[in-house]
Amino acid sequence: MSTAADRLPFLERHADIIFSVKTFIAAMMALMIGFAADLPRPYWALATVYITSQPLAGATRSKALYRVIGTLIGAAASIALVPNLVNSPELLSLAIAAWVGICLYVSLLDRTPRSYMFMLAGYTCALIAFPSVSEPAAIFDTAIARSQEIIVGILCATVVSTVLLPRSVGPAVSARVDSWLAGARKLSQDVLAGRSKDAAARDLRLKLAADAVDLDGLADHLAFDRASSRETLHWMRALRVRMLTFLPTLSSLEDRIDALGTDARTAHPQLTALIDDVAKWIGDNDLEREPADGLRERIAAQRPDLTASSPWGDIIIASLLMRLRELVDISADCRILNQAIAQGERPVGAKLIFQPEGGVAPARYRDPGMALWSSAGAFITILVCCAFWILTGWTDGATAPMMAAIGCSFFANMDDPSVGLRDFVKWTLVAMVIIATYLFAILPAISNVEVLVFALAPSFLIFGYLIARPATFFIGMMLAANTATMMALQETYSADFASFANSSIAFFVGMELSAISIRLIRSVGSEWSVRRLMRRGWIAIAKAAEGRGNRDRAAFAGVMLNRIGVLAPRLLALKGSDLRKIDNLRELRVGLNIVDLRRARHHLSMRTLTAIDAMLDELAASFRKHDGTAMPQALLCRVDHAMAAAIDDRGAGRTDALIGLVGIRRGLFPDAPDYQPETPAHVGSVAA
After folding, report:
1. DSSP string, 469-515
2. How far is 136 from 138, CA to CA, in rounded Å?
3. Class of residue 388 by CB neighbours under 10 A (exposed 0-12, middle 13-18, buried 19+)
4. Tens of pLDDT along 161-180?
């Protein structure tokens, strides 16, 4: 009996092996070109192939383009700094460290494939400048040669990836979308069936948030993929809006179902039957329009008309049905867009229904404070390594600040970069054993290029295979890059054990100094990062409440959702922590409801507007002082007063305002007693 893996196309089943072979071919091409062109360090072209190559052709091209630009900028910076400051080692060290820090800061803020260009511009300057201090007159030739070597590697990797059995980004994106939507259907059924409180459902919610951010990053490479059309890019952007809107919509729906209580199934049989039918339809994953249209009609028929005397239960049901309609629309649109991405064309007669007010902007969460801290950590670490080099007068001491620049840049996104640096050292030690075996046991017996290629094949094919697999990507990259650069292959054999041992010691000293320094300066725990991210979310909600206007809903939603995606993997890693119990989607819903209120306020009476503004001011003050505990009861009174005014309002924004206030009340006070309609006299008695 054949398995699902057996039914995949041949190229997909053996994609890891094919990638490894292709990368090795590109690497040997780059090395041979380096030999033929008499480049000073042809092994840099070999290493660049492994650093640049990605399993997906579009990802390789995007990374290659930015690597070329970053290399040229870094080389230009080294040419500008070394000749002018070589006689002042302290100033030169300060300038290079500052350059690396500034480039890293910009890279961390960018958070797109373009960020690689800024990071590379920083550490390329260190790679060229520090070893050139002893020969400053040759800096221009060194920079040009290094740029040529790296560009040769980039071009070889790009050409082979594009021409030889290219693997498109589109199918990979489609497969990830399939997986995400399967998880979304499972979570939807859990929520509609009342199983959302299970630990498995909470973990699935976090995983979907994190996967949405990862998928967004993968989709960035579609623009560089020749096999993907502009329509695919358009469909992916439309799908992203719905994927990100899905999570807060489902969270709102879960809250409204909880608000109806445990006896809802007997008290509201028609509503219960409707919810069960929606859950069944979501599980069927049917593309036909009729079932979805029928569900929309039933949702509209059950929606109650709200008046000033409407009980809290009717208000909750109206809000629930509104979110249920959104869930049906989002689910139907996701099916259409998923099929369009997978097949390259939209299904005949398919029409997108869900149109979010203001949309969800393609915004990414940026943390200037953490970026500044990370860049400052790199700056200080490089200076510490430079001080060690200068004070000891060590001939190979340039390796220390050079590796510090690379390590601090590569692992800047980690909560504790020293962990990454330690792993870097561990796998480089393994690479050292491989290098020593080649240099002193295998290479001395090789007399021609053909035998050299044959000798390199076993190790580098394994490295490529490891790079192709996400679980071992880091290991393969460390082994390939370090083996290629530290073996330092040339046209003639010139290995010297003393030189090899000295450079190896310099490398380890540099990495250990970097690990110790960065641990003291920059390293934090995941729990600290989680608390900080949550705190920044609370401040964002306070700012939304303080503002008056309706122009930034899309940007707010995009940033808040992206922040949750950044937060999710950290929460998943905190096994047993109370922080995992905090519902970040609840706070996101509050923020979105605040922005909805700001839009509705332009169509309300002055009395309602005054009550809502007073509530928003109280809410902003509460979130600025928030520490994760319960909100003050004074805020609940403000919310209820604003709700009473909104129910009695006759303006065009009444429904939006009421739904927004219900969301805020449920989000901040889920365990509060049911709202009770105020008398007309009481409505006017609360000071605004």
Report:
1. SGGGHHHHHHHHHHHHHHHT--SS----HHHHHHHHHHHHHHHHHHH
2. 5
3. middle
4. 878 877 666 666 777 788 88
Residue 381 · residue 408 · CB < 8 Å: yes
Expressed in percent and rounded to 5, the helix, strand and coil fractions of the chain are 75, 0, 25
What token pair was written down for 181? 């939507």
Backbone dihedral region of 151: left (phi > 0), alpha (psi from -120 to 50 degrees) or beta? alpha
Give the span between the Cα atoms of 403 and 510, in whole angstroms.
6
- Structure tokens that stand for 100 in this block: 């690396």
Average pLDDT for residues 188-199, to the nearest whole number? 81
Structure tokens at 251: 């969270």
Residue with tokens 């290991």: 475
Mean pLDDT of 542-549: 76
Q: pTM for the whole thing?
A: 0.76
Cα distances (Å, whole numbers) of residue 427 to 377, 403, 418: 23, 14, 14
Burial class (CB in 10 A: 0-12, 13-18, 19+), 454: exposed
Give the span between the Cα atoms of 416 and 524, in whole angstroms.
5
DSSP 590-659: HHHHHHHHHHHGGGS-HHHHHHHHHHHHHHHHHHHT--SSPPPHHHHHHHHHHHHHHHT--STTHHHHHH
Nearest in space to 226 (alpha carbons), one of 43, 395, 58, 398: 58
Determine the Cα–Cα distance for residues 248 and 642; give it in Å rounded to an integer: 23
Two structure tokens written together for 662: 């219900």
Is the C-alpha dihedral spanning 639, 643, 645, 650 positive or negative? positive
Task: Dig out the tokens for 216 from the structure.
Answer: 């967004």
Dihedral sign of CA atoms 174, 180, 183, 189 in order:
negative
pLDDT tens per residue, range 368-426: 888 888 898 889 889 988 888 888 877 777 878 888 888 888 888 777 777 778 888 88
Cα separations in angstroms, 65 against 60, 155, 291, 405? 9, 9, 47, 22
One-letter amino acid at 620 equals A
Domain range list for the chain: 14-167+365-521, 169-224+230-343, 526-683
Side-chain half-sphere exposure of 576, counting CA atoms within 13 A: 0
Of 187, 323, 186, 317, the residue nearest 261 (C-alpha) = 317
Cα gap 362→104, rounded to integer Å: 23
Topology of the domain comprising 169-224+230-343? Methane Monooxygenase Hydroxylase; Chain G, domain 1 (1.20.58)
